[in-house]
Design brief:
heterodimer, A: mainly alpha, 2 domains, 0% strand, globular, B: mainly alpha, two-stranded antiparallel sheet, 64% helix
Chain lengths: 362, 230
């Protein structure tokens, strides 16, 4: 039997490749990342570089252990993106080994043990971030106040290197709590919401990114810009971000209306870089989110609800990573129940009625 | 069943290892292997039950009817575990406090019931004794390997508190491997147990693969016979 190649039909190649997708996401992350690096200076730059290098080394080592070719997998940019996503969710002045341990957890345990790219159940960067947060609570919750590069009080290159190497005695790091951390502490103390928010916390700071937070999560505006770019280039569709942010906003509004002195303003919930980054860049991970449109809407809504529940009622002040991991775990279930409609059939799998009176039912 | 002691030994320690091959007894395995010492204590306690239950059940196998065998096995194992539990409480009180609930729970360790059903109830006393010892040692080996890995990665020590188990002479075993180590908490927590166990299982498979490859050279398929898959 001879197999002939299919010649007929005007086929056009869409030029979608893993490499192109990864590079587009990296490009979309660039503004927020560059701003974060500027904002937190040399220690952040060192941490960022170390994390990316570690991710690529981890990928290379895993490929070598499993006897896979190096070039195609290293050059597809997936390890780079995982390292990048992890790095920008770390506290900017964290010591180098946080980045290295995180990168190895992300690539080896989060991705390669499942069989490499496209096989992982959970988003690797969020696996690593959660593992780090559980294992090293002190290092993962020490957020310095922004000290822009080249400004007077910012650490110079040598001091920055010392901070990344874990020597905290060189510079008096001005640490400050993130808004959610601060509010959680104050509320646990029994203070009201007005009192808790009485500090310098303003929405404007969150929008521009001059409040303290993780390396690349400071500026909501720049992250939104990247998200819009991803939507425009069709790397992601609108369903997950909209349903995630929508359900979070809805829940936050309801609770805020019930008792404003106990529950944060919904704008605070939305104007956090973590949730914007999560909604546009992490929850939309093509590998770990559902296939069908309805599945994606449910997935996004689940993420939003869990973010609100964890932020409001759980022990951790921030819960985007945990929320997305939990919904990642339920993705196979969602995919099982909400399958895309098969072409030519209705949702229940029955043949469509073509109006010609012919009965095609089996 | 032939009584090939070499085969029984090999099966118990490696080929048919309770943890690494049968994947049984995972509950105590994951719960107590935060340190190598706990793993060793749990392993030795289990080994004592393995050996004693193998002896008792193979000696009584002629009079236990098939219809009531499982309750009888469980009863015998429960008596033995109670003895071990009380013994440890008396002479290794501190370790007993650490292992706590998991010593009585050896009763429900399916591996012990499994060996009773699969081996001791069908073999003579001596082979059953050897099987019990080897299965117990294999289980101990797995517990210590897992405990040591988790302890080194998780807290940077090895055989911490070995004095509790073995007495004061064992102080030299207590190593503090990594100075100024902050501790990798996840590895000590139960999820870390699963992760490390998975890597140890993968390691065992790798070693097995290497052994078979050395045993018989790879059969090379002639290029002409290889079909190209498009």
């Amino acid at each position: 039997m001879i197999e002939r190649p299919l010649y007929s039909g005007p086929y056009a190649h869409e030029r979608v490749s893993v490499r192109r997708t990864m590079l587009l996401v990296v490009f979309a992350l660039l503004p927020a990342t560059l701003f974060g690096l500027y904002q937190y200076g040399w220690p952040a730059i060192f941490l960022f570089v170390v994390t990316l290098l570690a991710a690529i080394v981890a990928e290379s080592v895993s490929l070598w252990v499993m006897g896979k070719p190096q070039r195609p997998f290293l050059l597809d940019g997936s390890a780079l993106l995982t390292g990048w996503l992890l790095a920008i969710t770390l506290p900017p002045w964290a010591p180098w080994w946080i980045g290295v341990v995180g990168a190895f957890v992300a690539i080896v345990i989060g991705k390669q043990v499942f069989g490499g790219i496209g096989q992982n159940l959970f988003n690797p960067a969020m696996v690593a971030r959660s593992a780090l947060l559980v294992s090293f609570p002190l290092e993962m919750t020490t957020f310095p106040a922004p000290q822009p590069l080249l400004s007077a009080q910012a650490p110079d290159m040598a001091q920055g290197l010392a901070i990344t190497l874990g020597d905290t005695t060189q510079v008096d790091a001005v640490t400050s709590a993130t808004t959610f951390g601060h509010v959680k502490t104050e509320l646990t103390r029994g203070a009201g919401m007005d009192e808790a928010l009485a500090g310098t916390y303003s929405l404007w700071e969150h929008l521009l990114g001059t409040s303290s937070g993780s390396l690349g999560e400071a500026s909501v505006l720049l992250l939104l810009l990247g998200g819009v770019l991803l939507l425009y280039t069709r790397v992601i569709s609108w369903h997950i971000p909209v349903s995630m942010l929508g359900s979070l906003a809805l829940l936050a509004t309801i609770f805020h209306l019930i008792n404003p002195s106990l529950y944060l303003d919904p704008l605070f919930h939305l104007m956090a870089g973590s949730v914007i980054l999560g909604a546009f860049f992490i929850a939309t991970d093509l590998v770990t989110s559902p296939v069908s449109v309805r599945g994606q809407l449910i997935f996004g809504a689940g993420c939003g609800v869990l973010v609100f529940v964890i932020r409001t009622f759980a022990g951790y002040p921030e819960g985007v990573a945990f929320a997305i991991l939990l919904m990642n775990a339920s993705t196979p279930l969602i995919d099982h129940y909400f399958r895309p409609r098969v072409y030519g059939r209705d949702r229940r799998g029955r043949p469509l009625n073509h109006g010609d009176g012919e009965d095609r039912r089996p | 069943m032939d009584q090939n002691y070499g085969q029984i030994t090999k099966d118990g320690l490696w080929n048919n290892n309770i943890v690494f091959a049968q994947a049984l007894g995972l509950c105590p395995l994951l719960a107590v292997t935060g340190t190598a010492t706990n793993g060793l204590g749990m392993g030795l306690a289990s080994t004592a039950v393995f050996v004693a239950s193998a002896l008792a059940i193979s000696a009584l196998r002629g009079i236990i009817t098939p219809q009531v065998r499982l309750p009888v096995f469980v009863l015998i194992i429960a008596v033995l575990v109670t003895l071990v539990d009380m013994t440890m409480n008396a002479w290794m009180h501190d370790l007993h406090k650490v292992l706590g609930l998991f010593i009585p729970l050896i009763v429900t360790n399916c591996a012990i019931l499994g060996r009773a059903e699969a081996f001791a109830s069908r073999n003579k006393v001596l082979p059953s004794l050897v099987d019990g010892i080897m299965m117990g040692l294999g289980f101990t080996f797995a517990l210590v390997a897992l405990g040591a890995t988790r302890e080194i990665l998780g807290s940077g020590t090895l055989f911490a508190d070995a004095k509790l188990l073995l007495g004061n002479w064992a102080g030299f075993l207590e190593l503090h491997l990594i100075p100024d180590y902050k501790g990798f908490l996840l590895i000590i927590l139960p999820p870390g147990g699963f992760i490390v166990l998975a890597f140890l299982l993968a390691g065992k498979r790798l070693i097995d693969q290497a052994l078979t490859r050395r045993g018989k050279p790879l059969t090379v398929v002639p290029a002409a016979n290889q079909r190209k898959v498009i």
